[in-house]
Every structure is written in C-alpha cells, then in structure tokens.
Amino acid sequence: MDDVRRIGILLFPGVEELDAIGPWEVLAWWTRNAPEDGWEVFTFSADGAPVECAKGLTVAAHHARDTMPPLDVLLHPGGRGTRPLLTDQAHLEWVRGRRAAVPLMTSVCTGSLVYAAAGLLRGRPATTHWGSLELLAGLDPTVEVRPEDRFVDDGDLITSSGVSAGIDMALHLVDRLAGTERAREVRRGIQYDPRSPV
Fold first, then answer.
1. Is 53 one of the catalytic residues?
2. How many domains does the structure of the chain reveal?
3. 32 within domain boundaries
4. Rounded to an integer, what distance in angstroms lies between the CA atom of residue 135 and that of residue 67?
C-alpha cells in the first residue's frame, strides 16, 4: 500500500521563480534527507511540459495536472502569470475541485489572488505580495487581509506574502508536518539565516 504523502508545486507560464523554487528547496531538502517522515514533493504543470517562468528561467515539471498522484498539500505560487488565471474559468474550477480533494492548500505571493478569485478565501484571513493587497481585498471584500503577516496559517489553508516569504511558509510547513526539530534541521541544511546586507 502506498503510504507516501505528497506535496505538489504548481508551475504555469509566468510563475515567479522564487515562489516555486524557494519552497522547493526547503521541501526537497526535507523529503530527501528525511525519507522516514514519509513525504515527497514534486512539480506539475497543466500538460506536464516545461514552463517558462516570469524572468525567463525554464523549469521542467515532474507530472501533468490530470495524471499526477493524489495530493496531500497543494502549493500555488504567484507571479505575473497569475493575472490571466484570475479569469481562467477552467483553472478556477480546477482550484475549487482541489479544495474538495486536497487536505491542505497553500499559496505564495499572488497565488492567493487565484484562491480569492476561486472563492476559497471567503471570510478567511489571508495575505499576498504587498503590491497586491488592494487587489486581494477587491477580488473578495470578505477576506480579512493581513498586510503585516509573513504567512497566515488558517488551518486547512495557508497563504504567504511575496516571493521569498514562500521559504518561511515552507519551513512552517515542515514544522507543522514533521515537527520543530526537523524544521530546524532543514533551515540549517539550506543555511537559511536571513539578515539583509542593506
């Protein structure tokens, strides 16, 4: 019996590189160095093809959206590529379907805008990139927008603010799913000690 639990990171044209790759670094370091925890992480795109990101990096996907294994955690990154997704009814319907099937939904940066457009954030606390806070409120005025929070954990839904905040959110995920000591191991392993030089 397959008892592996899975985290899927969505890739789409125009995804912000660090929104996807930052959490990937955290989650892949964890799952590869602590396989006994029983988790794996992979990327996927709509058709399984490589995706060109916001700043020109091309990233390969491990799976296609419709043929990937079932997810326990979905991570929806942001980036300029989220703007067309806000009115892409097929994508929004797919997101709504994941809400019913995936126990934990997470987002980085403007990925939360897609969740708002899909109706997932109704009446819930959430955050996004500082430059999109007003848009988040406009998409769904019932959202309790938290502009100062690096990430917001609301049980079965976690949103994080812009770009590098996805690293913090992913470390929080490790803490939540495997414990604080494991999260500290991962933070040390990737040598993440944020102290700005400017």
1. no
2. 1
3. yes
4. 33
pTM exceeding the 0.85 threshold for the entire prediction: yes
Please check whether residue 6 is in contact with residue 173, taking contact to mean a CB–CB distance below 8 angstroms.
no
- Any domain includes 140: yes
Whether 142 maps to a domain, the answer reads yes
* 107's tokens: 């987002």
Q: Which of 21, 95, 108, 109 is catalytic?
A: 109
Please check whether residue 196 lies inside any domain of the structure: no
CA 15 to chain centre: 11
What is the residue-level pLDDT of the chain in tens, covering all 198 positions? Answer: 478 999 999 999 999 999 999 999 999 999 999 999 999 999 999 999 999 999 999 999 999 999 999 999 999 999 999 999 999 999 999 999 999 999 999 999 999 999 999 999 999 999 999 999 999 999 999 999 999 999 999 999 999 999 999 999 999 999 999 999 999 999 999 999 988 788
Q: Which amino acid is at 26?
A: V
- Residues spanned by the domain of 92: 5-189
CATH code for the domain of 54: 3.40.50.880
